[in-house]
Structures are given as structure tokens and as C-alpha cells.
Design a protein that fits this description.
The chain has 4 domains: 142 residues, Flavodoxin domain (Rossmann fold), CATH 3.40.50; 100 residues, Beta Barrel (Elongation Factor Tu (Ef-tu), domain 3); 100 residues, NADPH-cytochrome p450 Reductase, Chain A, domain 3 (Up-down Bundle); 144 residues, Rossmann fold (3-Layer(aba) Sandwich). The protein has 20 helices and 19 strands. Helix 6 packs across helix 7 and helix 6 runs parallel beside helix 11. Bound molecules: flavin-adenine dinucleotide and flavin mononucleotide.
Length: 528
Amino acid sequence: MGAASCIAVWLASIQTERTAGSVGERYAVLIASTYGEGDPPDAVQPFYNQLCMEHFPRFKSLSFAVLALGDSNYEHFCKFGRDLDEKLAALGGFRLCERVDCDVDLDASFAQWKVALHRSIVEITAAPSTTCKPEEVTGVVASSSVQTPSKRTAAHTRDNPFLAPIVDKRPLTRDVSTKLTLHLALSIAGSEVSYESGDACGVIPQNDLRLVEEILHKLKFSPDISVQIPKSGTVSMQVALLDHLQITRLTRKMVSAYATMGRCQHLMDLLTLEQQQNLDAYVWDRGLIDLLYEYPEVVRDPADLVAMLPKLTPRLYSISSSPAAHYGEIHTTVAVVRYRSHNRERGGVCSTMFADRSHADSHLPIYIQPNKKFRLPQDGARPIIMIGPGTGVAPFRGFLHEHRALGATGKNWLFFGERSAASDYLYREELESMRKDNFLTRLDLAFSRDQGHKVYVQDKMLENAPTVWSWLQDGANLYVCGDASRMAKDVDATLHTIVEQQGGMNTDAAQEYVDALKDQHRYHRDVY
Ligand SMILES: Cc1cc2nc3c(=O)[nH]c(=O)nc-3n(C[C@H](O)[C@H](O)[C@H](O)COP(=O)(O)OP(=O)(O)OC[C@H]3O[C@@H](n4cnc5c(N)ncnc54)[C@H](O)[C@@H]3O)c2cc1C
Ligand SMILES: Cc1cc2nc3c(=O)[nH]c(=O)nc-3n(C[C@H](O)[C@H](O)[C@H](O)COP(=O)(O)O)c2cc1C
């Protein structure tokens, strides 16, 4: 999220210069992460929209460099970084160095970009390299006034997680045969771990031992062979597959490495540009084990296997507790991912680790991922509207407990949705009790399958459009959490509709109103 604010201010400064019509010598170093489905981070969207306007003036002397952050598990890898780089060049900007696209394991690509940028800066300033070292380029990127340094120093990070014991684990859904959502409470008592409502909890997952054993068996590898894992050193093959490497999902890179190693013609064909859709379909619901069965006897050297597999990455969970109300604990609300494909029962690595491979005494490696963009208003009297269907309710349970523990006087409104009230009404007793004593001013529920036609949270917003509008006019903050692919888009479109209808605005004016909400830090989204 830090990158997002960094880029926003750089673009703002470019924009200001253009509007003032006084472009001087300017340099912009941009670190651009991609969110949603190949989209800019929320905070950057208004600036990017401006850059993309038809008559945005050309730069006369902008020199820039873009580092794109992404994750190759996503279909649109580093798309926003690529788009931004192209847009700035198309507007007349001069590249200080070529853009580099970084995957989750970004050390090597970041170092490559840093060196290229450093070289370019040295050339431009004609400064001897001893006065401007690559390390200082990091400073350029991170030191800009846009970054608010954290007051807390994280004692536990993804590289040094805290082992938190599970103190509570229970289902929140009733018909767990069709859908299981868990409430998990982890103890952080006596530790240096601290968080604020709105933060996420990072969890370092572990793969399923049964799957690891099947892979080892299929490859005829001994579990004890030693292999080298970058940054972690020498570990046994079994530990590498359990703790360090992603085995349950395929990526284009993995398929490509495997195809080359085994000269698998069918896989090679899939990797051609014309077959992109077939490749997407192939990787969508397969993992390493499928490659091993479909194209056996390809990997003979354990080091080749390690080289072709991406790193197993931490998973994030919005924290559903409040430090003020749940002292010494972190709560999370986890939907367990299970599906069947190609004659095999499969599961998400981390969510099934919670469900199937951890118990009351298990210790989970965790760290806090602060989310400064997703905070309760400082003024406790300001009303808040929270839209959180499914596990999107998690941070709002935290917000509500926090507000109550701190005696905040502002009105609270929650929109919650799921499939059915009988089986999927998460935190039902707590929410209804908060509603009953009027602490929760409004609770609007959308159970999509409880009537003949589907009802979603955005339908409930529209039904209550005049009241949503009046809360917004009274200064309410609006929060959205949960599914990024559909829900957040539909809710955003509904917000625009409400502003148009209730505020009597045309599409452009409604867009400006929503942009202003974002600029005033009153429209927050935590979507995944
Ligand atoms: C900021 C943030 C906050 C989050 N908060 C929460 C939260 O509060 N609660 C929560 O539950 N999750 C939350 N998530 C999501 C969470 O981090 C994990 O992504 C999620 O739990 C799945 O992880 P996993 O390891 O179980 O599954 P993975 O091993 O990552 O597997 C998931 C993948 O499996 C594949 N897949 C899933 N279903 C199917 C299917 N039917 N067919 C084929 N393939 C399929 C897809 O490729 C999918 O990406 C959050 C994510 C972010 C980024
Ligand atoms: C909800 C969500 C959606 C994402 N979508 C994409 C995507 O479409 N393409 C991509 O390359 N990376 C995607 N990513 C990965 C991020 O770009 C990546 O984690 C990046 O390192 C985030 O950097 P930041 O934390 O500095 O913003 C997504 C991440 C999240 C949490």
C-alpha cells in the first residue's frame, strides 16, 4: 500500500506542474503495484484517470522510471505498472531506465532495476559513482515526503513471524458440507505483536504433507535430499515442498520451465500466443501433481524442481477483532477454499491448513500487515457505512467492537450478505445483539438464496438510496471489504447510481463526487 501513496503524490506533482503550465526539469521514480484485475491501486485511480484524459498535455521534460510490482499468479501480471510506463512514454516522458516487472520474490529484479536507475542518475548528474550509490536510489524511492514512516517498528515480519497459539477455532457457518467459514482466535499475549483495527494478519502457510509425499513418490525423490532455497539455505526436499515452494497452483512460468525441461510438445503449443486462453484454462485448476502425472519422467534433478517452483507466499486475513475489545488476541474470519477438479479433491493451502491441519494447540507463524488506508475516522462522532458481505464482514466486526469499546458516538450502518440466513449468517448473535441495543444503528441483510430472485448488498444499498445519500451528506465514511472481482465493482457502480439519482448529478459530476470522497479519505476499500 506504501507504493500506492508514493505513486499518487508523484503523479499529483506531475499534474500540478502541467496545470500550472510551467514544466521544468522533473524526475519521477514510480513504484506501481497492481490490484483488482490488472487495475491501479484505489488511491491512484483518480490521478491515472486524469493522465488518461484525451487532452492531457504532453510532458516537455519529464524523465521517469517505473518499477512494476505484481504477482504472476494473477492473470494481468504487473498490468498497471506496464500501462503507466507506456502512458508516461506516450505523453512524451523520457525513460531513465527500462521498466522492470517484479514478481512476489522481488529481490533480484529490484536489484537489477536499482542498478539501471542508479547508472542513469549518475550519467545525468555526472556525479562520480562514489557519491551516489545504488543503495541511495532506494532512498529516492522510499524517502519521498509521501511516505509516512510507521511509528511502530514491526517486531515480527514475514521473514521473522511470531508463532501464535490458536486459542479458539469454530465454524461460523452451519451447513459446513457446502461452505465452511471459520472464526479463529490467536493469542498474541506477552508478545511484541500489536495491530490496529483495519490491519490484516499475514500467515505463513504450510502445504499438505499428503500431497508433498505423493509428489516425492511420483518423482522418486528421497524426502531427505538436500536442496538450496534462496535466502533460506539448505533444507531437505520434504521441508522445501512443505514450507517453501508453491505446489498447488500452476503458473505460465512453471509450465514453460517444465515444457522446456521435458520437451513436451503439447505444453509448448499451449505456450504460444494463439493458445493463451487454452493455457489459462489449463493452469486454472491444476497443480504440480497434474504435470507429474500427465507428463511423467521429466524432472530428474531436485535442483531443477526447486528452480521451477515459485515461492510459497504468505496469505493475508483482515483482522476481525479490536485491540481495545479483545486484548491479547487476534481474530480472523476464514472462508475455507475446497473444490474438485480433474478427479481430485483440492483445497486452498492456508485455509485448509486452518481447517484440517491445525488444532487448539497449534502455533501459526503470523505477522501484521498494517493497512493505514483502512481506518476508523479519528472523529468518533462521524457516521460510518460498512459494506462487507461474506468474509468482508471481518474488519467491520473489528470496527464495531472498537467503536463500542472506545465509546464512539457516531452512527454505524452495516450491510452484510451471504447465501442463506439459516446457514451462512456470520456472527449472527453478536450483530443482532448490537442492533438490538441500538449500538448498530442499521443492519441491512442480503441473503441471495433465501427468495426466488437473487438479492445482493448493492440491491440493499439501492433500496435505501435516500438514507445512504443523507448519511454521506452528513459526512459518513464509506467502507467496502470482500470480493474484488464482482462485489466491489457492483457496489462502486451502485454508489455512482445513488449519487447521480439522489444528488441530481450527471455521470461526470457523480464521478467527481466519488473522487472527492476518496480524496477526503472517506471512501475506503479493502478488496481481494
Ligand atoms: C488484504 C486481504 C485480506 C483478506 N482477507 C481475508 C479474510 O478476511 N478472509 C478470507 O477468508 N480470506 C481473506 N483473504 C484471502 C486470503 O488471503 C486467501 O487468498 C484465501 O484464504 C485463499 O488462500 P488459500 O491459501 O486457502 O488458497 P490458495 O492456495 O491460495 O488457493 C486459492 C486458489 O485456488 C484456486 N481455486 C479456488 N477455487 C477454485 C475452483 N473452484 N476451481 C479451480 N480453482 C480454484 C484459485 O486459483 C484461487 O486463487 C484476503 C486477501 C487479502 C489480499
Ligand atoms: C486484491 C489483490 C489483487 C491483485 N491483483 C493483481 C493483478 O491483477 N496483477 C498483478 O500482477 N498483481 C496483483 N496483485 C499483487 C500485488 O500487485 C502485489 O502483491 C504487490 O507486491 C503489492 O504491492 P504493495 O503492497 O506495495 O501495493 C494483487 C494483490 C491483491 C491483494
